[in-house]
Amino acid sequence: MISQNDIDTILSGRSHVLASDGSKIGSAGQVYLDDQTGDPSWVTVKTGLFGTSESFAPLQGANVTGHDVTIGYTKEQVKDAPRVESDGELSPEEEDTLYRHYGLSGHTGTTGTGNSGNTGRDFLDTDTTRTTTGTTAGYEAGYQAGDERIDRSKNGNTVGHDTSGPTTDEAMTRSEEQLRVGTERREVGKARLRKYVVTENVTKTVPVSREEVRLEREPITDANRGNALDGPAISEEEHEVVLHAERPVVDKEAVPVERVRLDKETVTAQETVTSDVRKEKIELLDNDTTNTTDGTNTTGRR
């Protein structure tokens, strides 16, 4: 259920209107108030390229989540709604047409002030964050629509506009923008592990041995005389010896050497944010000096 407490959220400039299935319809534009209850009744939805189109959507049964407004209707119903100019005035005929389009009941026609051609509903705009009523009664010369502030206290004592109007009180409110800096968490990248095969050259040195022929001579002694005299005295003979040598042999085996995994750690850094903020100043004007709320004086202003 949308109430007056949700108006500032809807008019924050960051609010989007979502359909009943959660799909985005468009950004919120203006909020129209019921002059009898003061509760939000309609919201305009900016659609189309660059938000050039604006459709009316009912706030009955809607709810606010964060900055978004979820209504109980489809995107097609909103986009097919009758074209009504969002100029701050909603005539009884236009409102009846919208009620019939959305299948709403209980509308009593002209409400509020009863002025001809206006419903008496108020609207709030996200661009000006001010309210303009559908009635034109009570305006004095020089007082234009959009100069007044909405009275949320319901006691009728806080409404005011410029000094040409009749309802301003004895005090003026000074406001200023305050810079609120926070953080938001969003995805900035991804890291993943990938295993692939590379080939590299490995050199190792191993000792190898081989057999070589060596000629040995021994003199004839009593110990080998028998072998020396065995056989013919003069003859031709051949003897051979088999030689052996070692050769390097390469064999490969796959063995696990380590395990690698991804882990995350949070590091904190300092970042400086700079933005422009506006503030109102109130000054006292007389014939001699000008006093401002920040304590400075200027002379000679007339």
Automatic annotation (TrEMBL):
Residues 171-186 have a biased composition (Basic and acidic residues). GO terms for biological process: photosynthesis, light reaction. GO terms for cellular component: plasma membrane light-harvesting complex. Residues 172-283 form the DUF2382 domain. Residues 155-167 have a biased composition (Polar residues). Residues 105-138, 150-186 are annotated as: Disordered. InterPro entries: Bac_photo_RC_H_C, DUF2382, PRC_barrel-like_sf, Stress_Response_Assoc. It comes from the Bacteria. This is DUF2382 domain-containing protein.
